[in-house]
Fold:
Amino acid sequence: MAYDTERQVFRYVNRYFMVPVFRLGLGSLIANPFSGYIMVMKTIGHKTGKVRYAPMNYAIQNGNVYCTASFGPTTHWYRNLLATPRVELLMPGSSLTGIAEEVTDPDERLHALRQILKNAGFPGFMMGFNPFIAPDHVVIEKCARLPVIRIRPAGVRSGPADPGGWLWLIWIGVGILPLLMRRIGNKRNCC
Structure:
């Protein structure tokens, strides 16, 4: 029951806050060591064929981007990339395309997993251990059900400030807000 509730909360926060923030190009404003370094992965739905967005913590190592499916192999985006491994990543500072694959080498998996949890900030401690000091066997045991994914970059995508991006919406808001404030102020003064 709590597991389902947690998934629902993440679904709403991701859909109505995280994804729009990244699509607007403001991801770098919320990525930090305390709340975690987050990216948004764009996948194709394995059943619907529709574009799906999924925010997640990540680590960059050896020119690859790593992430983990926190809800295990039933995670929707994980099942999507198994069907279509070509993904797009909206990162705090850039956008890129890549090919996703599950990490099978135990040493690479452990190293990537530990770094992802360190980069997750305080949510990284929700696994029940401190990822900075926990012994390897604890990390392996507590995270045994979590798939670790490697994304090999294949190209650079247009970002939020490039053609087709959403950053221009911020400037409309910045331009309209003073006009609205002035109008509200004039209505209060006239009556």
Summary: The beta strands are 38-44, 51-57, 59-61, 64-68, 86-90, 95-102, 148-156. The longest strand covers residues 148-156. Residues 161-191 form one domain.
